[in-house]
Specification:
5-stranded antiparallel sheet
């Protein structure tokens, strides 16, 4: 199983291979259990959005500060 890399409150953005998310900055709201394949999941929310999204760790990267 892979460990969570990102922390609650951290700013992240879609990774280069992720087409499912808008090109925006998101905040990690919660760490979720890993998928059956062992990939950690995160609940994230865009700073200008009202919806929360669930993404796999390989879909996001740290946003520049």
């Amino acid at each position: 199983m892979i460990a969570h890399v990102f922390k609650v409150g951290q700013a992240v953005r879609p990774g280069p291979s992720c087409r499912a998310l808008p090109n925006d900055v998101f905040r990690v709201l919660r760490l979720l259990p890993a998928t059956a394949g062992g990939m950690p999941l995160y609940c994230i929310k865009g700073e200008m959005e009202m919806i929360e999204r669930v993404v796999e760790q390989n879909e996001i990267e740290a946003a520049p500060r």
